[in-house]
Amino acid sequence: MNDDGHFDADLAATYDDDSGNSGEAAVGPVVDCLAGLAGSGRALEFGVGTGRIALPLAQRGVPVHGIDMSRAMLAKLADKPGADSVAVTVGDFATTVVGESFSVVYLVFNTIMNLTTQAAQVACFRNAAAHLEPGGCFVIEVMVPRLQALPPGATLQVFDRSDSHWGVDEYDVVTQRLISHHVHFRRGRAQRVSMSARYVWPAELDLMAELAGMRLRHRWGGWRREPFTAMSRSHVSVWERPA
C-alpha cells in the first residue's frame, strides 16, 4: 500500500463515475441528514475523498473540514467547483488532529472499515470525540456483515453483479478481515481493484463509542431515518458527546 492507502491515482480518476454512489439520489439524503444534525454548527468529514458529500454539504451552508490521506483523491476534490469552500488536512483520520471543534463529525460509505485493526477503529472514535463540541455527534454509515448469507465453510460472497461492475467480498470470520474485490468494466476494458478492510458489528461500534465517552443517540436503516431491523443491510448510527 502506498501513502494514499487504497485510493491511488488510478482509483481516484474513476471514483466519481459510479452514479449509484455519486448521483443526487444517493447524495441528497446524506446531505439532508447531516445538515439537520449540524444545525448552525460546523462539520468534519473523516475520509473526505473527492468531496462527494463535503461539497454539497458546504453548498447547504454548513462549513466543512475534511481529512484524507489520499493526495490523489484530494487532487480530484481540488479540481471541482466550490472546492475552496472545504478546508482539507492530509492525514490518517484515526489520529490526525485539526485543532478545531465541530458540531458533527461524520464517516460514510463503509469508510470505518478501511481501518483494518480494532485498535485503529477505537482510535478513530476517540479522535472523533476529541473534535466534538459538547452535545455534538459522530455519524457513521457502514454495512452490516452479511455472514448469514454464507454457507458453512464458505468465504466468498457476490454482493453486486451488473454489466458495469462485479463485486465479491472475501470474509475471514476469525480475524474479521475482509477483502473486497471489484471488477469495473469501463471504456471497453476491465479494471480490477482489491481492498482490505475490517468488518465491524453495530454492538462493537457502540462499545467503541462508550470507550470514547460517547453514547448512542440514533440507529437508522438508512439516511432517510428508516427503522433499523434484522433485515437491514447497512446502518447509519449517531453517537453523541454528552453536553
Query: Unreliable stretches, pLDDT < 50, 5 or more residues?
Result: none
* Spatial arrangement of strands, main beta sheet: 3-2-1-4-5-11-10
N-to-C CA distance: 40 Å
By DSSP, the count of extended strands is 11
Count up the helices.
7
H-E string: HHHEHEHEEHEEEEEHEE
Instruction: Give the amount of beta strand, in percent.
Output: 25-35%
Average pLDDT: 92
Integer-rounded radius of gyration: 17 Å
Largest sheet: 7 strands, mixed
Overall SS class: alpha/beta
Global geometry: globular
Overall helicity:
25-40%
Describe what this molecule looks like in 3D.
The chain has helices at about 10-15, 20, 25-40, 55-60, 70-80, 120-130, 200-210; strands at about 45, 65-70, 85-90, 100-105, 130-145, 155-160, 165-170, 175-185, 190-200, 215-220, 235-240. The model has no long low-confidence stretch (mean pLDDT about 90). By secondary structure, it is an alpha/beta fold. The longest helix is centred in the N-terminal third of the chain and has 15 residues, at about 25-40. The protein contains seven helices and eleven strands.
